[in-house]
Amino acid sequence: MANNSTATGIDELDLNDALDEGYDPLADIDFAGDEDVDYPVGDGANLKQAGLPEVEPVPAHDARPASERTAELFSRMATRRKTLLAILRKCQEKQPVREVVDYICDLKTRDRSVYSANDFCSLLERAGAIERVGEDGASYEEVELEPKTVVVDGVEYLEPQTPAPAFWLTTQAGLDMIAADDPEGRTEQLFEEEDAYLPIFKRILTLCSAAGGASAKQIAKACDTDPLLQSPRYYSSRFVEKLNKSDALTWAGKTWELTQTGREALVQLESVDDPASAEILANLEA
Amino acid sequence: MADEMLNDLAELCAQRDSTYALLARLYRVEVDQPLLDGLHATRFPAATGSTKANAGYRALAEYLSNIDERSTTELAVDFARVFIGYGVDSYAAAFPFESVYTSEKRLKMQEARDEVLAIYHAYGLDKSSEWEESEDHVAAELEFMQVLCARTTEALKAGDEDKAAQLLQTQKNFLEDHLASWTPMMTVDIRRLAKTKFYLGLADLTDGFLAEDEAFLNEVLGDEE
Questions:
Q1: How far is B191 from chain A (nearest CA, A)?
Q2: Which H, E and C letters describe chain A, residue by residue?
Q3: For A139-156, what is each residue's pLDDT tens digit?
Q4: Which residues in chain A are contacts of B66 at CB distance < 8 A?
């Protein structure tokens, strides 16, 4: 390879000379004996011989019992438990699918989710918690319909047909999940675990017992400066969220409102001493 | 031209307007529930004279005969699969842009886009500020044809034959030089990628209708000459 000095004094490689010399990039590689190598092809038997793990085929569908799949769904979507349970309750009697979709869309206005109404139904169906049924309550039969040929003013047209109406119905696995739901038990457990903050819980429940509920701002004003929440520093939203998860409160779009479970929890906390709660109650009754 | 012939031609252009509008809408964005309900209530021609168009309408009608509340999601998934794709491979989707199919490296915003934009401007049109895709998107080109069909119908109803002829000539030129020159390649990709009868039918309908429209324009303008 000729080196050409430049005005900068840096030697430059003259690649043209290199190519002219018939450079062979494979010259140093020894291919001797490779012609006889028999590379394995075919059915995976050779993979076993190589000591590689066999690939298990993916099952076409989940064969586990519906109760197990449903429990797993509720575990993985714990934050959406309320919505999933509400759907199961709604479908205890068979409901037209469009009505269920509208119902879920309404639920979502108070509990936003990236999952669409159809997503929720698909997930519950896949878990075996709800099933698609026909008007007669029997399993829905998917039948491929053909468009109808009609003649209008002597011209032939294809008219799309409408499939038979479908309904959603909660299965036994779904009914069992409804039965296993114990919001009162969750509230009791919450109060046992957080007994140091019972006055705060009482205050929040009392505020939310007002007609129209209480806003997050009102709750924060009543609780955040309380000495109980200064060390460790907590804010009212933590307690609101715990009450929400226990189904004692529900979000009504702009305010938190008491549920039946919340009303019963408030009765449970009657003996808890909290002057602020008494003052709030007095104002509500005034 | 006799009044009756003008009326017939105006009626025909109005029908072409509707078909271009339908195609433009189906390519523009995913099918939503109101559109799906509207299509389900529509009757589709069974015998158009084009085998491909007939197959397209039949596939659409068959799909629409079996829809349920999951169909909008299914169609949205197929729309994404066909027109958006995934990854960096330029063959991963039927990218609905003339530039992609007429440029060497399958890139957007190439010469084709500049050409069609100049044509739109010549007719006092520009893309809407809400439309974020480039002007050589198939939906924009179909909509341009729709606008010209609508103007032709108006001209014919007003008895302005010269204007109608000029507009028809523009449509013929635009089809030959642009729309019909590349959409057959796009529809091949659509058929490769689509899983629903809906989008498979759209591919056939596009091919069949554009071929028939080209033949119609050649015939009408041939008579005029």
A1: 21
A2: CCEEECCCCCEEECHHHHHHCCCCCCCCCCCCCHHHCCCCCCCCHHHHHCCCCCCCCCCCCCCCCHHHHHHHHHHHCHHHHHHHHHHHHHCCCCEEHHHHHHHHHHHHHHCCCCCCHHHHHHHHHHHCCEEEECCCCCECCCCCCCCEEEEECCEEEEECCCCCCCEEEECHHHHHHHHHCCHHHHHHHHHHHCHHHHHHHHHHHHHHCCCCCECHHHHHHHHCCCHHHECCECCHHHHHHHHHHCCCEEECCCCEEECHHHHHHHHHCCCCCCHHHHHHHHHHHC
A3: 998 889 999 999 999 999
A4: 144-145, 163
